[in-house]
Design goal:
Length: about 180
Amino acid sequence: MKFKPNQTRTYDGEGFKKRAACLCFKNEREEEVLLVSSSRHPDQWIVPGGGMEPEEEPCGAAVREVFEEAGVKGKLGRLLGVFEQNQDRKHRTYVYVLTVTETLEAWEDSVNIGRKREWFTVDEAIKVLQHHKPDHAEYLKRLHLSCSPTNGNSLLPSQPSNDNFPHYGPLTTGSVLGPSCR
């Protein structure tokens, strides 16, 4: 673990920083996704998420991060996948689907750092994420794959090692995967 002001970074046994995030959708049709402005680059958009705290489960961290960064609450759905980024930093991010049920007028990051949020269609979000955060664009590309006739339960091969793409393993199967895409 590394300590930062107000944050404890946790790492898994392979040295990957443990992270969690949510693709926050306006409704169960999963057509519009909520992105937030980056704290480092306020003119760029990102998927809300961040580091897991010690003893925190990935699903709990994902919900907490979305509340802090995007000011929304909702119904947590399926685990979309576990994504690895090896190029700049070693991150392993658990990405969930969340259907938004409550949107706060003001929230922690909007007050403290002026973070903004905006709804995008999935295709628009992929385009705006592609240049600044291509690993986040991959989350949304996986969403399309998980809406396949196999209900997202098939194992996908890991991407070959290439500095231009994040590395991710197979989808986690089991009861954590919720209903299929509608």
